Amino acid sequence: MGTLVVDAVISGILTGGVYALMAAGLTLIFGVMDIINVAQGILVVLGAYLSYTLSVHLGVDLFLGLVVTVPAMFVVGVFIQWAFIRRLGERERTAMSILATYAVAIIIEGVLGLVFGVDYVQLNAWYVNQSIHLFSFYLPYIYVFGFVLAVCLLAALYVMLYRTRFGRSVRASLQDRSAARLVGIDVDRVAAVTFGIGVAVTAAGGMVFGATNSFNPNTGYDLISRLLTIVILGGLGSIGGALGAAVVMLVIEDVVAVVWSPIWAPFVFFAMLVVVLSVRPSGLFGQVAGRAQ
Amino acid sequence: MLVALAIFPLVFTNPTVTTIAVFTLLFMASATAWNGFAGYSGYIALGHAAFFGTGAYVLAIVAQRLDVPGGSLMFALVPLAGLGAAVVAVPFGLVALRTRRHTFVVITIAVFFIFQLLAFNLSITEGSSGIQVASPNWAASTYNNPYYYVALGIVVFATVISWGLRRSVLGLQLLAIRDDEDRARGLGVPVGRAKLIAFVISAVPVGMCGAVYAYFLGQIFPQFAFNPLFDLSVALMSLFGGIGTLAGPLLGALLLESLQQYFTIQFSNGDLYLVIYGALFLAVLLWLPRGILPTLGDLIRRLPKSGARGNFANAAVTTPSGNPEDGDPRAGPLAIAGRGVVGSRREH
User: Which residues of A are less than 8 Å from B111 in CB distance?
Assistant: First the structure.
């Protein structure tokens, strides 16, 4: 039992890193634009299907394929922001954005269903099938590679946010949109690029997700409810909070699956959200309670 | 309108048409109930499918345990299903309503998924194999009619609640919360209690609809009872017709649900339908964010201004007792609802 729990903690941390990457995109978008992108879940699935198409039909390696899929998802994100989000009125903007991105999500789900059907598929490569011997158990290489990829991308995100001029304008927009506009930041451009980046990470997240889980067009619902739970627990708009919450939640889920039952692990996941919010309505790491609603 | 709805199944006896009509009525009632909470208070709840599913399972499980035979007796369980939904709504509301606006929306989605998971995994719901509900042995030609009239009864029930809410102190409190919750609290509105009561009330008709739905289909599965598209549908219907108005959700549901059922029968392609549905939803959000009725209300309000002036000019020439309200062709329920909307909108 003891070693099983250790295994669960390790795999929880490794999967948590990938969820952190997907959640970081979601929380970044919220922080800059007050937009909750409910389509993030299905975009991850779309990213997974893009990798699937490249690897099955063109034989491109999954990690190499990211060179194509990440920019493609960036363009998808900028398009969604340009075509739909930009046009929403200021009144009840957040609530409207949830409905609008939900609509985008079901359009994408429908298109994926038309193109790929409802059969479950999974990404395949040598590192998905071969396992690494770690302590007492075997773990497919993809978990380790995916974790490394997620850490690299999160580090890149960090450098972009805290070491570049563009990152400074993003953080300024995070703090106060009108003030950022006053000091000469093109907030609309920042919003478009941020949305693009927030969606682009789903290409990488989707690839790792698709290699570690089988998926079909309906998988987006499960994903988005987890991602939303993570960003709310982490405190909306807080990237560090999203990272912490992702790792904590995935470790808890994996440990529960081992010590109790895999069926009830997702239940504990959502129940955690309810319990935490009953005690702390602003989330585990949140300091956004005072934010203008 | 009510008369037209009452004689509808006597005029259109085609079972396909009456089946569409039953679903449409269920959504008219659900959208109206949802709007009674979300439309008035401004809290977009995306978890009412939890009440729909609860109602469906209350009917299915109670009928199964008590061996209720298929027939009119089954409808006696419908109020019980409404009660079950209300009982479930109390803890749901207590947790979710601690949070504001967008966090609230996300919480309702998360709690909804907890319910769906429970339905899949608890032994009492028999998981994904679902529960059968005994079917009545009514004549095929008029088989749908009892369902139709019970559904119509729920529509009337939901509309009366919504109408009563609007006229009550509670309704005013909800509108105050929608406009500015902090100020409402400062002015002494018991915001927490008002939101919770409205939330629980709005769950009742939705649960009853779920029960009729389960009985009508004759079997119930977790993914259909707890369907995320249901949440989206009631929100879209209310937005389409005019969120926060009395007749808006009725109109929105009437148009959208009948269209949806027609599409499903015509194309029987769920994925194509998803695309069309999503596109329609986006179109409404972007170009008609206030819904049909408020937009129409504005148009109607602009018309009478010129019309009244004309009447006044005529009256001055002919008789001093000329009343512009006399023989007003706009005095239908639509115009009244429209005026109500315009009136409440002016408060902003």
Answer: 270, 274
- Domain edges within chain A: 2-279
Residue pLDDT, tens place only, A46-69: 999 999 999 888 888 888 888 899
Chain B residue nearest residue A264, CA to CA = B121
Q: Which of B 180-239 lie inside 8 A of A, CB atoms? A: 181, 228-229, 232, 235-236, 239
Structure-model confidence comparison of residues B270 and A249, the more confident one: A249
Strands A131-134 and B219-220: unpaired
Min Cα separation B230/chain A (Å):
13
Contact A89 B289 (CB under 8 A): yes
* Domain A2-279 bears CATH identifier 1.10.3470: yes
E strand or H helix at A250, and its extent? helix A239-259
pLDDT digits (tens, 9 = 90+) for A192-214: 898 999 999 889 999 999 888 88
Helix spans in chain B (H): 2-11, 15-41, 49-66, 77-96, 101-121, 145-167, 169-179, 181-186, 191-217, 222-225, 228-241, 248-267, 270-287, 292-317, 333-345
Q: Which residues of A touch B106 (CB under 8 A)?
A: 36, 228-229, 232
Distance from CA of A103 to the nearest CA of B (A): 5
pTM of the model: 0.79
